[in-house]
Amino acid sequence: MRKMKFVLIVLLAFLPMNKAFHAETEISNARALFIYNFLSHIQWPEESLGTNFILGVIGNTTTYDYLLKYTEQRKIGKRGIEVKKYHSANEVNNCQVLLVAQNKNNEMPSIKQKLNGKSCLIVGEKAGSTKDGAVIDFNIINGRLRYRIDENNAKNHNLFIGSSLLQMSL
Q1: Gap between the terminal Cα atoms of the chain
Q2: How far apart are CA 88 and CA 163, in angstroms?
């Protein structure tokens, strides 16, 4: 009986952590879906595109795994989609989209400088990343994942954001 109580107490102690992990997993999944859907509502200058569409991720985030899942065997027009993992701003090179994980938001000034004037959609996981140079950032409002678009940052990166994407933005 004492063993049963102990096991029950241990299970109850880990329940909130399990809920938090599950919620973060759902958010990462939703972020990946948003990013994948952004691709069809944003136009890049033709000269900035290569054979494959490069979607970079800098930092540690479970969103990376979902992006791999959603982009596997998919195309943007005639271009395949390649997901690349970067560990620092110095490694970032020639990508059309760059997701900046929350743990790398402090590198946003370096990222902004490195990609200044290049046609790259910088997406910040952290709310308020648009103030630091991201074109899009994610926000949780009333328990729902939403996104904000900074049109000036998009123009600085030579990106055209579709009206339907803008209308649904915060």
Answers
A1: 54
A2: 33
The tally of domains found in the chain comes to 1
Residue in the block written with tokens 């938001």: 105
**In this model, does residue 14 exceed pLDDT 70?**
no
Q: What is the pLDDT of residues 68-85, one digit of tens each?
A: 998 888 888 888 899 999
- The number of helix segments (H) and strand segments (E) in the chain equals 5, 9
**pTM exceeds 0.90 for this model:** no
Identify the CATH number of the domain in which residue 121 sits: 3.40.50
Exposure class string for 133-144: b at 16+ Cβ within 10 A, else e: bbbbbbeeeeee
In contact, 143 and 124? CB cutoff 8 Å? no
Domain presence at residue 8 = no
What is the CB neighbour count within 10 angstroms for residue 146?
A: 16
The pLDDT of 135-160, averaged and rounded, is 92
